[in-house]
Amino acid sequence: MQARLFQLDAFTSRRFAGNPAAVMLFDNYPDEGTLQALAAENNLAETAFIVSDGDDFRIRWFTPTVEVSLCGHATLASAAVVLERLEPARDAVVFRSASGPLPVHRSERGYVMDFPVRQCTRTEPPEGLAKALGTSFEEVLWDGFNFVVRFAAADKVRGLSPDLAAIARMPCAGVIVTAPGDGEHDCVSRYFAPAKGIPEDPVTGGAHCALTPYWAGRLGKRELHAFQASARGGELRCRMRGDRVELEGSCVFYLEGIAQW
């Protein structure tokens, strides 16, 4: 078997930054075991598998170890593949996913994704969270999938060196850490998801489905300039649209070829 394979750096305008994503194109999906094996072989935070479906595309996302219900950076990369390589005359595409239809359109900065909001509610921290993070924090929230941990200052987020094995044992998909921004950014964040096979995700669209309404409410803004402070780093423009959030970013192509197995 074979499939077209693309690798892009998402949420960045320069190569070797942002979050690398693989995108693979099929006429029809192979079995789930094959998809998981391909994602493990690609060994990136996520691989997106897309299939043409009329004017739209179906999309599924896999980490090296599990399938996930939503992935922002691999959707952004998939939009770049469709709109730059497969159908460059188009300005928009809709991906049909486990999280519903996800429209994406071109913008001056790259592409704008329309994603569902994840509302945060305050919760008690799980046992061992402060020890796992190596420091105290201001509050803990729950977004339905992840614990969201707020710190007082951006340098606390940037300087974290957490115990990933301890985080992997916690009852959550992952831990988002965040603080008010410094410099030009409204907020900063990082995302640790070792239970999903992702020790630290470089830039996470799904996390900003929760961070956007949270920080929009705290800061009294409808639009945010966000930075994910991983080693690679990445930028997002985030906007509230009722019960949806717009996530805007750019992509850089790194690799194009044919995968065979």
Structural account:
The structure is a single chain. The protein has 261 residues and is an alpha+beta fold. The chain has two domains: 2-114 and 249-260, Diaminopimelate Epimerase, Chain A, domain 1; 121-241, Roll (Diaminopimelate Epimerase, Chain A, domain 1). The protein has six helices and 18 strands. It has helices spanning 32-42, 72-86, 129-133, 154-158, 164-168, 205-219; strands spanning 2-10, 19-26, 46-53, 56-62, 67-68, 92-97, 100-107, 110-116, 121-122, 139-142, 146-150, 174-180, 187-193, 198-201, 223-228, 234-241, 244-249, 251-260. The protein has an 18-stranded mixed beta sheet that branches. β2 (19-26), α1 (32-42) and β3 (46-53) form a beta-alpha-beta unit. The longest helix is centred in the first third of the chain and has 15 residues, at 72-86. The radius of gyration is 18 Å and the shape is globular.
Under the CATH scheme, the architecture of the largest domain is Roll
Residue ranges: pLDDT <50 for 5 or more in a row? none
Tell me the structural class.
alpha+beta
Largest sheet: 18 strands, mixed
Q: What is the fold named in CATH at topology level of the largest domain?
A: Diaminopimelate Epimerase, Chain A, domain 1
Distance between the termini: 5 Å
Query: In total, how many beta strands?
Result: 18
Helix content: 10-25%
Q: Could you give me the name of the CATH homologous superfamily of the largest domain?
A: Diaminopimelate Epimerase, Chain A, domain 1
Global outline: globular
Summed up, the helix count is 6
What's the rounded overall pLDDT mean? Answer: 98
Total individual domains: 2
